[in-house]
Amino acid sequence: MKTVFEYTRGMRPVTTTYCPGCTHGIAHRLVMEVLVEKGLLGDTIGVSPIGCSILSHDYMNVDMCESAHGRAPAVASGIRRALPNKTVFTYQGDGDLASIGAGEIIHAAHRGELFTTIFINNAIYGMTGGQMAPTTLIGQKSTTGVDGRKKEISGMPLRISELLATIDGAVFVERVALNTPANVRKAKKAIEKAFTVQQMGLGFGLVEVLSTCPTNWGLSPVDSMTWLEENMIPYYPLGNFRCPEEVK
Asked: pLDDT per residue over 209-232, tens digit each?
């Protein structure tokens, strides 16, 4: 019988605890598929901070290190400098990276640290209860903004990819989404390029992944995909912001 699906060696064969419709699992698999295909699985160390992302060590079949909230870039910087032959990545959510960890990620990019960041942007805090994040959209409701985000009170949502793309040390920056099969394929290609940048020692790389959070958005999994396409992508346009000529 023809094999139509094969479980990647990069994922541990365990039952997920993510909410139904959450696309963290897709992102996990893409990262692990890339590492397997590049022959890096046994030489990779991941760093996951507080948030839904901290569960990734249950699913990713690589060495993982947990960090304090927002501090994954600092931990990854130390690991990569101490173990320069290892491939290192951080896996962070927007409540973590764009808020308490904003300074960490900006300065890691500024230093051109040789690790890769997978940045999951679902426009809200997930694990801690659906609070407003720096990426929450104008009018989007949250547990700390029940009437929706207001520009005059909370400012505009923070576009991390555009911000980091202005920093010389951030040599690869791309935003992708997981809402369609075609976009999932593009996301995998971006992740592969980001790890190639690290392998070549060119500098810091980040892939921003637009993801769903049906539970905290108060939507069904299917409606969440529609909401992402109709609301997130117009404000957070997909595409590459920086890429070295060597990996284009």
From this structure: 999 999 999 999 999 999 999 999
State the total domains in the chain.
Answer: 1
Cα(73)–Cα(104) distance, integer angstroms: 6
Query: Is residue 75 in some structural domain?
Result: yes
The residue among 127, 110, 206, 112 whose CA lies nearest residue 159 is: 206
For residue 229, give its domain range: 24-242
Beta bridge partners of 149: 138
pTM above 0.85, yes or no: yes
Give the per-residue pLDDT at 50: 86
87-93 vs 44-48, strand pairing mode: parallel
The answer to whether position 12 is within a domain reads: no
- Tell me the C-alpha distance between 192 and 5, whole Å: 21
Q: How many other CB atoms sit within 10 Å of the CB of residue 127? A: 15
CATH assignment of the domain containing 81: 3.40.50.970
The verdict on residue 166 lying in a domain is yes
Measuring CA to CA, which residue among 245, 239, 162 is closest to residue 202? 245
Residue 19 lies in a domain: no
- What is the SS3 assignment for 83? coil
Alpha helices in 151-244 (DSSP H): 151-154, 160-164, 181-199, 214-217, 221-227, 233-235
* CA gap 111, 11 in Å, rounded: 31
How large is the average pLDDT for residues 173-198? 97
How far, in Å, CA of 88 to CA of 45, rounded?
5
| Residues 112 and 172 sit within 8 Å (Cβ to Cβ) | no
